[in-house]
C-alpha cells in the first residue's frame, strides 16, 4: 500500500522529469502544515537562484500564521521579486505533487501578478 507522501512524491517526479527535459528554470514550491517555501532553481537543478519562505524573520513579524493563504500570497510576491533581481522572468512551475488549489494556487497567482511568467 502506498502512503500519501509517497503518492505525492511519485506525482512530483513526473513533473520534474518533464521540466528537466525542457532544461528551463524551475519554481519549486513546498508546503507544510505551518509554513510554505519557494525556490527558483537553475536549469540543471543544482543551484538555487532565489528563495523565500514564511520562516524568514522579517516576514514572521508581519504574518500571524505561516501556513495560510495570506502567507502564500506574500511568499509568491517575494519569490517573484527575488527571481527578477536574479535576472529570471520565465519559469516552469513545480508544485511538488501538491494539488493546485488553496495555498499553492495563491502563491502561483501572486507570483504571476508580481511579473513572473509561467
Low-confidence stretches: none
Averaged pLDDT, please? 95
Indicate the multimeric state: single chain
Give me the number of helical elements: 4
Record the strand order, biggest sheet: 3-2-1-4
Number of strands: 4
Question: What would you say the CATH architecture is?
Answer: 2-Layer Sandwich
CATH class: Alpha Beta
Major sheet summary line: 4 strands, mixed
The succession of helices and strands, N to C, reads HEEEHHEH
Number of domains: 1
The SS-based structural class is alpha+beta
Q: What helical percentage do the residues reach?
A: 40-55%
The percent range for strand residues is 15-25%
Report the end-to-end length measured between terminal Cα atoms: 35 Å
Topology-level CATH name: Nucleotidyltransferase, domain 5
**Radius of gyration from the alpha-carbon trace, in angstroms:** 14 Å
The shape is globular
Description:
There is one protein chain. With 118 residues, the protein is α+β, with helices and mostly antiparallel strands. The protein has one domain (4-113): 2-Layer Sandwich (Nucleotidyltransferase, domain 5), CATH 3.30.420. It is built from 4 helices and 4 strands; from the N terminus they run H-E-E-E-H-H-E-H. The protein has helices spanning 4-22, 57-62, 69-85, 103-113; strands at residues 26-31, 36-41, 48-53, 92-94. A 4-stranded mixed beta sheet has the order 3-2-1-4. The radius of gyration is 14 Å and the shape is globular. The termini are far apart.
Amino acid at each position: 500500500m502506498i502512503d500519501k507522501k509517497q503518492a505525492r512524491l511519485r506525482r512530483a517526479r513526473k513533473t520534474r522529469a518533464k521540466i528537466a527535459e525542457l532544461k528551463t528554470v524551475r519554481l519549486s514550491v513546498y508546503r507544510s502544515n505551518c509554513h510554505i517555501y519557494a525556490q527558483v532553481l537553475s536549469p540543471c537543478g543544482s543551484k538555487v537562484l532565489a528563495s523565500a519562505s514564511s520562516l524568514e524573520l522579517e516576514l514572521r513579524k508581519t504574518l500571524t500564521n505561516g501556513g495560510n493563504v495570506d502567507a502564500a500570497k506574500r511568499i509568491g510576491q517575494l519569490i517573484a521579486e527575488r527571481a527578477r533581481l536574479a535576472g529570471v522572468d520565465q519559469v516552469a512551475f513545480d508544485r511538488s505533487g501538491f494539488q493546485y488549489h488553496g495555498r499553492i494556487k495563491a502563491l502561483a497567482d501572486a507570483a504571476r501578478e508580481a511579473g513572473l511568467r509561467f
